[in-house]
Write a structure and sequence with these properties.
This protein is an alpha/beta fold and 351 residues long. Helices cover 45% and strands 12% of the residues. It has a domain at 105-280: TIM Barrel, CATH 3.20.20.
Amino acid sequence: MYEQGVIRPPSEASSLLIRVTRNCPWNQCLFCPAYKGVKFSKRTVEEVKKDIDSMANELRDYPGIKAAFLQDADSLILPADDLIAILDHLKERFPKIERITTYARARTLSHKSVEDLRRLKQAGLTRIHTGMESGSNRVLKMIKKGMTPEEVVTGGRRVMEAEIELSEYIMPGIGGRTMSEEHATETAKLLNLIRPHFIRVRTFAMHPQSPMQKMVREGTFVPLTEDEIVAEIRLLVNHLDNMHSYFSCNDFSLNLLMQVDGFLDEKKEDMLKVLDAFLSMTKRQRQVYTLLHYAGFGNYPLSVVHDQNVLDRVVPEIEKFEKSGGEHGFDEYIRMLKTYQLPQPQTDNWC
């Protein structure tokens, strides 16, 4: 038997999941339900090696496995020597592995030396996924992210200098209405300084148990509508340099416009055109497209809003939400739909 954690990036769907730590060492972010209710712990090298051996024995009839992901939320909190021992054993038991990736917190990365990161790369670590969420210090403090913009830049630049692929995650909407512009422009500023290989969009959705619900009730946080989130993403993209970073909305279904996707130095103008095309629709057309997307009907081209058969089917549903929920009924329904795709906290008393 072997342990596995609760989450991994969508891009690691076919990867072996190797648990080197349990849960999250910080675990205070107001928006994240994944590890609430459970404690962080480090696993020993021998424990992880035994798991790798169990996987190798179980998967001996599938010798072609080429990717692995080190769990949980902050694998690089382990000493570099421990991680290298794990990586060496993993490659020994799965000799055809070509790609090994992991999550890491920006604060942890900022405390790693470039030399240690280069050693990890030489041992086989090929990509690090890290959650920036926002470049705004005010937003980071509000959501209790536990890091500063300076740490984000330092950690990101060290990974880039070590020539490990870097995937930075950003969260449109997390600043709310008050800090939307600041959130977009400050996030773009940090990304321009780091110039990561990947910029992955993770649109904010508020879990029903999140402490941020109390902030909404008290009026200190006003969630953005989908239209406002798209406008925020447009502002962000417009402020990003034409750099060779892959900007991706395509791998996460909580992103409304998943077709906003591509290298910034090749597709930035095309992405802005998609965002502008959505924002130039009528309000009803935007509602139709939004409901189709979040109700689980798939990733549609924007032209779907001109299909009369679709309009005849969807508009009456929108009118029901408006009638029952008033002016904000539709927006509240969409926010509720989005929460179904979030991981569940491992406690009933998150707040």
